[in-house]
Amino acid sequence: MNMPSRPAHVTARTLAGGHFRYFDFVMAAFVAIILLSNVIGAGKVAQIWLPGVGYWPFGAGILFFPISYIIGDVLTEVYGYARARRVIWAGTAAVLFMAFMSWVVVELPPAPDWKNQAAYQVIFGQVPRIVLASVCAFWAGEFVNSYVLARMKLWTGGRMLWTRTVGSTVAGQAIDSLIFYPLAFWGAEGWTNALVVKVLFTQWALKVGWEVLLTPLTYLVVGFLKRAEGVDVFDEGTDFTPFATRV
Predict the structure, then answer these.
(1) How far is CA 242 from CA 9, 65, 203, 218, in A?
(2) What pLDDT digit, counting tens, does each position of 201-220 carry?
């Protein structure tokens, strides 16, 4: 594979309508992580043991969901905010369809000789409140993450990638957690207000920690994609409105 040694510095407007060889794969990875995190990791509270603190609760989805933010960073850094915006909307639509499909399948009358309806409902049953909280938190958090990274890239002139990957995650994950946990669990059965606050801040800290730990991997992926695509997109003159249909 022949790759340019240095990617060209271009604006998002210059590349409007352009085709990239790896963009579709990155988009597919992003949507897959979002769906799997919502199906497998959502709702379960696990615990870890911290020296001097004891057992501390955390949401199980923390193990894989933050990867979506890392992929979001890669999308914005390599392809620009406008293309990241399309991917965020695709992820939002996928989560909404997943929730609708889960509701339909769970509500279908089970065959008389099929005895797993109760277990199936526990695993795939969708609580409207949690679905609403998840979609709102994901949508807002991802757009904040992408916006902050794109703006910081302009401020830093494309230097110090780690400052914007970590900085955007601090902001995006804060919005995500501040929306999701109170909206989904405040006053819910089995959740004290203190537990909601504890899990909220634990989730936020762990997600940011994951971003920091995976920064070397982010550098490798971003560097590879920029060389492979031959561009380094800067969002100069970009319309940052989430609902915009143009760059």
Answers:
(1) 24, 22, 25, 24
(2) 887 888 888 888 889 999 99
- Nearest in space to 82 (alpha carbons), one of 167, 164, 14: 14
Tokens of 64: 């894989």
Contact 132, 95 (CB under 8 A): no
- Tens-place pLDDT, residues 162-178: 999 999 999 999 999 99
Angle at 158 between CA 216 and CA 222, to 5 degrees: 35
SS3 for the chain is CCCCCCCEEEECCCCCCCCCCCHHHHHHHHHHHHHHHHHHHCCCEEEEEECCCEEEEEEHHHHCCHHHHHHHHHHHHHHCHHHHHHHHHHHHHHHHHHHHHHHHHHHCCCCCCCCCHHHHHHHHCCCHHHHHHHHHHHHHHHHHHHHHHHHHHHHHCCCCHHHHHHHHHHHHHHHHHHHHHHHHHCCCCCCCHHHHHHHHHHHHHHHHHHHHHCHHHHHHHHHHHHHHHCEEEECCCCCCCCCCCCC
pLDDT band (50, 70, 90) for residue 13: low
Which of 146, 68, 191, 52 shows the shortest CA–CA distance to 183?
Answer: 191
46 neighbors 58 (Cβ within 8 angstroms)? yes
Residue 73's nearest CA partner among 2, 9, 207, 164 is 164
Report residue 222's pLDDT band, with 50, 70 and 90 as the boundaries.
Answer: very high
Q: What is the pTM of this model?
A: 0.83
